[in-house]
Amino acid sequence: MRKKGAGSARIDSLTKFSSPSSSKSKAEINDLSKKLLTKYLEQEKEFQQSQKALSISKAKILSLETKIREVEYKLEEPFFLLKPKKKFG
């Protein structure tokens, strides 16, 4: 005779827990389902907010990278291409 695995024991307990003869069990399942859904929706909202923050950060990083490239280019320009400074007098 084979032993039941942990997974099948859980399935059996859920089947017994949700039997039609127990309205209290159904109410508990419904309550837990609502709590689970609420928690899921909260997590999803938090995830979306994080995604927005990451998008903003990405845009800032790209902008700063562009500015860095511009400064690097100016530093690499040959001296004669630089604009002459105004002379006094």
TrEMBL record:
Residues 14-24 have a biased composition (Low complexity). Residues 1-28 are annotated as: Disordered. It comes from the Eukaryota. This is 10073_t:CDS:1.
